[in-house]
Amino acid sequence: MTKTAETNVVRAPFKGDHVGSFLRPERLKEARAQKENGKITAEQLREIENEEITKLVEKQKEAGLQAITDGEFRRSWWHFDFLEGFDGVEGYTPEQGLQFTGVDTKKHGIKVTSKIGFSDHYMIDHFKFLKSIAGDAVAKFAIPSPNMLFFRADFEEGLYTSDEELFNDLIAAYQGVIQALYDEGCRYLQIDDTSWASFFSEEGRAALKEKGHNPEKLASLCARAINESIAKRPNDLLVTMHICRGNYKSTFMTSGSYEALSETIFGGLDVDGLFLEFDDERSGGFEPLRSVNRSDLYVVLGLITSKFSDLEDEELVKARIEEAAKYVPLEQLCLSPQCGFASTEEGNNLTEEQQWEKIRHVVKIAGDVWK
């Protein structure tokens, strides 16, 4: 992470960074089940969450991370839990869960029953607690993209007459919650977005057309949603975006290169950094990075997988960083796992110790490459 001497404004992610979610400890899983069964109160669960998050913050520091998160320990889902905090949005139980490769998630969804808005949001308190225990580390908070509500929610018929009208309300709600987080001291915000993956393959674009969308027009709307949501952010708020193709119990949802949308993602989003999946062949090569047209846009290469326990060959990772540097200057590159370790509370198929080995691997390699 770099800062300008004159303004002390954060301008880049850390060279060795991470996406944010961590495997839930057994104690936390048990407490959440007890709360669900009425054996403990919400207050008792919150105290256990506080204790486990405090331990997690210390483990992140011990592993060498300079930006720390709460691991999303208070969430069941990386996106639904947050989106339900907006006015007009509520959770419900659909007929089936989300479909991943070879597995479906548990049944949960969101629906929009009235106009979307922001009056307050319960996760602001989640960030306040993280900030209070961060110490000299940077407290990083991750929220789902506004596009995720558009792609994942069911809408009450007649509520919005056009996509543009819906996006206007979404943007206003996001501007409100981002400012509220900033007011509580947030200076590193990550926006998580799986919706872009719908545009990466012919199958994904065909599915959008079947739903009545024009992929080019929708991509433009999605870019507008990001850019206008963060347009009013203060200069010292770092905003990055994580683009994912799905992460549930070590499976994925989609495949496809960034090529189909490279000009929009690398040349049309006003974020400070992009966390990108590059851990296997599903993501394609680095060639789309040639569309990066800003010297202040940082690309965080997700070369270390969070899905499996085997550690990547260190020299191979360094060689891949060198390959990416053919398209983006090395000083604009960073390294991280390709996704979090637990996008949902179920988590990926590896142990907590294997998870920390991955994080230490990232920190070690980044320290070697960017000395």
TrEMBL record:
Keyword field: Methyltransferase, Transferase
Catalytic class of the enzyme: transferase
Domain Cobalamin-independent methionine synthase MetE C-terminal/archaeal: 19-346
Methyltransferase keyword on record: yes
Transferase is among the record's keywords: yes
Enzyme Commission code(s) on record: 2.1.1.14
An annotated Gene Ontology molecular function: 5-methyltetrahydropteroyltriglutamate-homocysteine S-methyltransferase activity
CDD domains referenced in this protein's UniProt entry, alphabetically: CIMS_C_terminal_like
One Pfam family cited in the UniProt record for this chain: Meth_synt_2
Single GO biological process annotation from the record: methylation
NCBIfam families, alphabetized: PRK06520.1
The name this protein goes by in its record: 5-methyltetrahydropteroyltriglutamate--homocysteine S-methyltransferase
